[in-house]
Amino acid sequence: MKKLALLLLFVLTFGMISTINVKAATLDQALQNADIAVASASKAIGEIEAIEDKEMEEVVETEEEEEFDENKDTFKISPSSKPYKNKYVKNKYYNSNTKGYFLLESYMEILEKQHGGTLVLKAGTYTISNAVKIPSHVTIILEDGVTLKKATKGAKGFKPACGMFQIVPPSVANGNKKLSDYNGAHDVSIIGKGDATIDMKAFKGSIGIVMGHAKDIKISGIKFVNMNKVGHFIELNSSKNVKVTDCVFNAGTSSKSGIKECINIDAADKKTHGFDVKWSSHDKTCCDTVLIEDCTFKNSRGGIGTHNYSVKDGKQKYHKDITVRNCDFYNCGTKSTKKFGMAIRMLNWKDADINNNTFDSCKKYTVYGAGVIDCKIKKNYFKSAAGTKPIYIARSGNSKHYKKTYSSYDKKDITDNKASGTSTACYLK
């Protein structure tokens, strides 16, 4: 196009010069008019070149941006964003209820393809209908003002799922592979900055974050609200090296019955229905090395705990090295022993460390254990504990699926606890 414009310009210029030579009264006038024509032509050429240079720069910038976009390791989205490269927008299930799910899922898929990266969610409300699958080496950052809200409706033929997040590669969740041991997703972080909320809307059976056969997981700085009575905020299953820090768990008034915990620590076991997802084997892998620190638990029948245990090849299976420290529990547990809701329920936990926690207005058995091996319970404070048994370690525990499990610990490891102004809290064996 540039060549054609220059050609036309030169034709016009030489035409003007020829006309000038014919019509000019004197040679000086002809030369003067010719200079003017040449100057005008040069100016026009310069303007054309500048326009084309700018157009070329824009093309280059666009190409560089697209090329960089394929390889960038940090993406930022808002509630008004569309899925990555408009994937799913023409999907028959894409609507206002499912948009948030497809948005996040599209970015998890590209991050799996790129072997990791970071997704930053800007402030606003995201409605999530189905479980977003998180692959390895991924960090999700919820900026100040983010609310992830559980959708209670989906689309025709596409019902909302119970889970909001599953820590598993999308390709595995959508395939036929079954994970075992700790060979699933790893090096995953979900971090809240400022006021970041996951609202489960008391959706029946809902679970905020599900993990299984995972390792090196971090969840921090998030407020979880409105847990359903048969759901959990976090399903921590068959995983290793997990940290949950600086979070608030407020079950709310929806948790009126049942024994479900805010954080459930469990093993993948077919008999106990501990982890019934299609991508998990039932190999009875237990959790190993879990830290729950600087968290608050409110208004729940269960704060942290396990309500089933497993036996493999005739031997008891144990969750190992579970640490709960510097946490606050308020109004947790149940008055009835039949419901067995506790602030902390240790069932087949080995080398657990429960220390420097505060329990206020908690019910009946506040810290309960059965099948406990070598636990340490120290420097905890039980406020408003009158009429309760703050620490209760049973000699044995029962299961309808397996043989009895028995506790074994040293009393000197349960010390320096205070209850309602007394020097020590009760414990039984």
Shape: globular
The CATH superfamily of the largest domain appears as: Single-stranded right-handed beta-helix, Pectin lyase-like
Structural class by helix and strand composition: alpha/beta
Label the CATH architecture of the largest domain.
3 Solenoid
Strand content: 25-35%
- CATH C-level name of the largest domain: Mainly Beta
CATH topology of the largest domain: Pectate Lyase C-like
Radius of gyration, CA atoms, in whole angstroms? 33 Å
Return the average pLDDT rounded to an integer. Answer: 84
Low-confidence stretches: 1-27, 48-68
Number of structural units classed as domains: 2
The proportion of residues forming helix, as a percent range, comes to 10-25%
Question: Major sheet: size, sense and barrel closure?
Answer: 12 strands, parallel
Taking the alpha carbons of the first and last residues, their distance comes to 91 Å
Query: Count of DSSP E strands?
Result: 35
Tell me about this structure.
- It is a single chain.
- The chain contains four helices and 35 strands.
- With 429 residues, it is an alpha/beta fold.
- The protein folds into two domains: 2-67; 75-419, Single-stranded right-handed beta-helix, Pectin lyase-like (Pectate Lyase C-like), CATH 2.160.20.
- Strands 1, 2, 5, 8, 11, 14, 17, 22, 25, 26, 29 and 34 form a twelve-stranded parallel sheet that branches.
- A hairpin with a 7-residue loop joins strand 32 (396-397) and strand 33.
- It is globular and about 60 Å long.
- The protein starts with a helix and ends in a 10-residue tail after the last strand.
- The relative contact order is 0.07.
